[in-house]
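Supplementary Methods. Inverse-folding protocol.

Structures were first reduced to a discrete structure-token string of length 207. This string, shown here, constituted the complete conditioning input.
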């Protein structure tokens, strides 16, 4: 234990000042080098700062050396943050895009019509019947089927619509043959995204 008073030796060239808890040894003369000097009890101080020797309770020399040898933490953290920043931004962009597509309105049908340029076909004539589907411009798929009044129908057909494509034209080619007169009817059955049925009338005549 260090005393709580200070002691001055008769030799005026050396002065020892001790304070309670920790001590400061002020040296003057030839013995006050950067690496010389011990405590009054012969214990080497923890470190030397010029002519001041500091010792007493606190961090010892081994701890100071370990702390001084530890790698800097802040640069390592910065490097780790930079390494993970780009993948994190890419992931956030993908999630935002998926959420936007999910929250955006889906394909909607606003109107469906069927028409033909030849409502009165003649002998052995092929008629182009056109179904026009007007949408809200969202991408998606139309499914539909053509049904004819002669008892035949097509299989389920599919039409892909791109973004901002607000109109789709669906075609049915119907060929008439033979003599006589026939009242024909062509129906467009829209199956998805909504169910709707529209039709057009034709009159075939071949004397």
């Amino acid at each position: 234990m260090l005393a709580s008073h200070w002691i001055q030796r008769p030799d005026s060239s050396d002065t020892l000042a001790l304070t309670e808890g920790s001590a400061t040894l002020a040296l003057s003369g030839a013995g006050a080098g950067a690496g010389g000097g011990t405590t009054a009890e012969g214990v080497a101080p923890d470190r030397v700062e010029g002519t001041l020797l500091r010792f007493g309770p606190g961090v010892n020399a081994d701890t100071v050396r370990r702390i001084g040898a530890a790698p800097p933490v802040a640069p390592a953290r910065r490097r780790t943050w930079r390494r993970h920043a780009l993948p994190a931004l890419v992931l956030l962009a993908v999630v935002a895009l998926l959420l936007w597509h999910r929250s955006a309105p889906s394909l909607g049908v606003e109107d469906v019509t069927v028409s033909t340029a030849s409502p009165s076909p003649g002998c052995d004539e092929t008629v182009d019947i056109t179904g026009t589907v007007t949408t809200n411009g969202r991408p998606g798929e139309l499914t539909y089927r053509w049904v004819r009044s002669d008892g035949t129908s097509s299989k389920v057909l599919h039409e892909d619509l791109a973004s901002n494509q607000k109109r789709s034209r669906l075609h049915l080619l119907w060929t008439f043959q033979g003599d006589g007169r026939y009242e024909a009817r062509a129906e467009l059955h829209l199956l998805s995204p909504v169910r709707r049925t529209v039709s057009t009338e034709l009159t075939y005549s071949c004397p």
